[in-house]
Write a structure and sequence with these properties.
Blueprint (H helix, E strand, L loop, with lengths): L1 H8 L1 E3 L3 E2 L2 E2 L3 E3 L8 H8 L2 H14 L3 H22 L8
Antiparallel strand pairs: 1-4, 2-3
This protein binds zinc ion.
Zinc ion binds next to loops.
């Protein structure tokens, strides 16, 4: 219920990206744009979300080397966690 309120009813900024950056018009809920139809479409198409993902990916993987390092670190973490968990699960795998 909280989620529905947050997405469709809570007062929020439109946030659609235009030439002047994020739109600051009031909107109802984070999933709905402001009165501008184009902004509604933009939000429905998830452009904002996609851009966030791209930014997140750029932060995590700025270039190939860092990506490999990050992946290596994650793998090391995972294998470490697996090794730590193995006695608990009986080492069946
Ligand atoms: Zn807008």
């Amino acid at each position: 219920m909280c989620t529905i309120y947050f997405f469709f009813l809570a007062p929020a900024w439109c946030g659609a990206l235009g030439r002047d950056g994020a739109c600051r018009n009031n909107s109802k809920g984070v999933m709905m744009g402001c009165h501008l139809r184009q902004h509604k479409w933009q939000k429905l198409q998830g452009v904002v979300v996609k851009k966030r993902w791209r930014e997140l990916r750029r932060e995590l993987f700025p270039n190939a080397t860092t990506a490999l390092t990050t992946m290596g670190g994650m793998l090391a973490l995972l294998s470490g966690a697996a090794a730590a968990l193995q006695p608990i699960f009986g080492g069946g795998w």
